[in-house]
Specification:
5 strands, about 200 residues, single chain, alpha/beta
Length: about 200
């Protein structure tokens, strides 16, 4: 049985952020009968999402620095000294964590680009995304229409969608649109997708 599993930016970021530990297992599931497809724009969106995470980490670091300055002024409290040490260690850990996220993102994007089937942007997809707002967020709506267009062009076989973006992809309108093109299997985790793939007849 031929199978197409659709993914979006959420998969890349889940691996990068450490929320998804089985990304490599998922990529290894690609075969002659199992394809994983991703809108091409998701790669760029993942870099933008990383930049947002970097800004959040920098804001956190700035707050830590403010607290550290204040604690250094307290020369009599033993507790201030203890907290100061912890916050100084936190600044180092914060930098290391951001480096971890960056390294994981670059690795999964590099590996995915050579394995996943990209869904290119076309005038038809752009038009659909601009005229049918199934998702209020323009970027996610564009990703959805890319997936819908691809699924229409490949009507045969089983199709599934892997996304943990419940807010945008769990609405009735979106689920109806996905079902209309044969995507009847929504999955939240790679483990669930792999379990489903293992249960299919070969």
């Amino acid at each position: 049985m031929n199978v197409i599993v659709y993914v979006e930016t959420n998969f890349l970021m889940s691996v990068a952020m450490g929320r998804e530990a089985r990304g490599n297992d998922f990529l290894a599931a690609v075969s002659a009968s199992v394809r994983i497809a991703i809108p091409a724009g998701c790669y760029m969106e993942s870099f933008s999402a990383f930049e947002d995470e970097q800004k959040r980490r920098n804001r956190f670091l700035a707050e830590l620095d403010k607290q550290i300055v204040q604690l250094r002024r307290d020369t009599t409290s033993e507790n201030a000294g203890t907290l100061l040490k912890l916050l100084e260690e936190s600044t180092t850990a914060n930098d290391k964590l951001l480096n971890d996220v960056r390294a994981r993102l670059f690795q999964v994007v590099d590996e995915a680009a050579g394995i996943l089937q990209p869904i290119p942007e076309t005038p038809a997809i752009i038009h659909s995304a601009l005229t049918e707002m199934l998702i209020p967020d323009p970027t996610d709506n564009f990703i959805l229409h890319s997936i819908l267009d691809h699924a229409r062009r490949y009507p045969e076989g089983a199709k599934a969608l892997l996304t943990d973006n419940k807010k945008d992809f769990d609405t009735q309108d979106v689920q109806t649109a996905l079902a209309a093109v044969g995507i009847n299997r929504p999955f939240r985790t790679v483990s669930n997708v792999l379990g489903w793939l293992g249960s299919l007849p070969h």
